[in-house]
Amino acid sequence: MPEFFHVLPPRQALQILLDRLCPLGEAEQTPTVQALGRVTAAAIMAREDLPAFPRSTVDGYSLRAADTFGATEGLPAYFAVRGEVPMGQAAQISVSHDEAALAHTGGVLAHGADAVVMLEHTHQANATTLEVARPVAPGENVVQPGEDVRTGEEVLPAGHCLRAQDLGGLMALGITEVSVARRPRVAILSLGDEIVPPEVQPGPGQVRDINSYTLAAQVQQAGGIPLLLGIAADNFDQQLQAARQGLAQADMLIISAGSSVSVRDVTAQVIENLGAPGVLVHGLALRPGKPAIVGLAGGKPVLGLPGNPVSAMIVFSLLARPLIYHLCGCRCPPEPPSVLARLSQNIPSAAGREDYAPVLLKRDNGRQIAHPVFGKSSLIFTLMRADGLVMVPLDRGGLYSGEEVTVQLFQP
């Protein structure tokens, strides 16, 4: 039986493919309100200054800062109150020497004013006279026009994955539509005589298809569009035909199962027959997920993932997720959320491979504790009972109880 002699670390295997793979380079317009998680196809420039006018950052009085110099609690400066600048309206009043106007947070300053004194540093001597007990500097408590962004300034570069705050900033500039990279279509094919659809009652020796649906969910999380191809039996011609059809209608193909050393598994042969250059890497320095395959056919990436659900999901996160962002032209793919925690017990490993162990997070006296969830890679509930993964580096023979580790959290 053949064995893997030239396994590569996951990052190295991924880079071999990325070096040969160009982004799709296709753009589409989408409403900004629906663009969360999409990747910008072109740089976005500001069409106007933001803010467009001097705005107060506090409730108080707008005035000339120089008139407050030397003011103290014991010897306040006195101002004549000229009125109020209402919220949402342009200023209709002006202030000059020793004059002030009521200002509101986010509102416009009176004409002639260059600062705002906070309300709590003032006292109303009478209906028309204000005492100011503290000096302010020019520009204090004021956001100047263009201080946030200026007309013509690059707001976001091309290849940027849009976040919630980005959408808010674009809306502030009146940018209600944005050019984004087309979402990659990812075909998913499951293999095996023993695999049946979820709605079918499995017979002896059969199991329901898990990977098609977990992988489809992961594709959606990464910004792709999953195309479920169904299940192909353990027949080379049938598998090759299904793979060809899937690759023809997608930008990327994932084949689940058939990547181990079993003589019944012919995924590598299928990939070799899809187009040049074929298989680039067969075998990763990884557990679980060692038998994964990295390939390229006709300019499209093809991944062969192990059939075990835990292995398939982990290999997807290491290879397929960054591939989808790369196809979108994303310069800096967002990292999955993570937290620091203390291990509750040892995690054994072997030097020379990356190990990924599911963990359950619990708090103990205000500290985050990571409890390993040990189980075989064929058991999906191993991951369902966990909150995230802990990685044991290549050069470590394991992690020790009490050690601080980074937990890569599963995304909802």
Which secondary structure elements does this structure contain, and how are they paired or packed?
Elements: H1 10-18, E1 27-31, E2 44-45, E3 55-56, E4 60-63, E5 77-84, E6 99-103, E7 115-118, E8 122-126, E9 129-132, E10 142-143, E11 154-156, H2 164-172, E12 177-181, E13 185-191, E14 195-196, E15 207-208, H3 211-221, E16 225-232, H4 236-248, E17 252-256, H5 267-272, E18 277-282, E19 286-287, E20 293-297, E21 300-305, H6 309-327, E22 338-343, E23 347-348, E24 354-364, E25 367-372, H7 381-384, E26 388-392, E27 398-399, E28 404-409
Parallel strand pairs: 5-6, 13-16, 13-17, 14-15, 17-21, 19-24, 22-25
Antiparallel strand pairs: 1-12, 2-11, 3-10, 4-6, 4-7, 5-9, 8-9, 18-20, 20-21, 22-28, 23-27, 24-25, 24-26, 26-28
Helix pairs in contact: 1-6, 3-6
Question: Would you kindly provide a written description of the structure presented here, covering whatever features stand out?
Answer:
The protein has 412 residues and is α/β, with parallel strands linked by helices. It folds into four domains: 10-26 and 183-327, Molybdenum Cofactor Biosythetic Enzyme, Chain A, CATH 3.40.980; 27-45 and 157-181, Molybdopterin biosynthesis moea protein, domain 2 (Alpha-Beta Complex); 55-143, Beta Complex (Molybdopterin biosynthesis moeA protein, domain 3); 338-409, Beta-clip. 17% of the residues lie in helices and 32% in strands. The protein has helices spanning 10-18, 164-172, 211-221, 236-248, 267-272, 309-327, 381-384, and strands at 27-31, 44-45, 55-56, 60-63, 77-84, 99-103, 115-118, 122-126, 129-132, 142-143, 154-156, 177-181, 185-191, 195-196, 207-208, 225-232, 252-256, 277-282, 286-287, 293-297, 300-305, 338-343, 347-348, 354-364, 367-372, 388-392, 398-399, 404-409. A six-stranded mixed β-sheet has the order 7-4-6-5-9-8, with no helix packed on it. A six-stranded mixed β-sheet has the order 16-13-17-21-20-18, sandwiched between helices. β8 (122-126) and β9 (129-132) form a beta hairpin. α3 (211-221) runs parallel beside α6. The protein is elongated and about 90 Å long. The model is unreliable at 1-5 (pLDDT under 50).
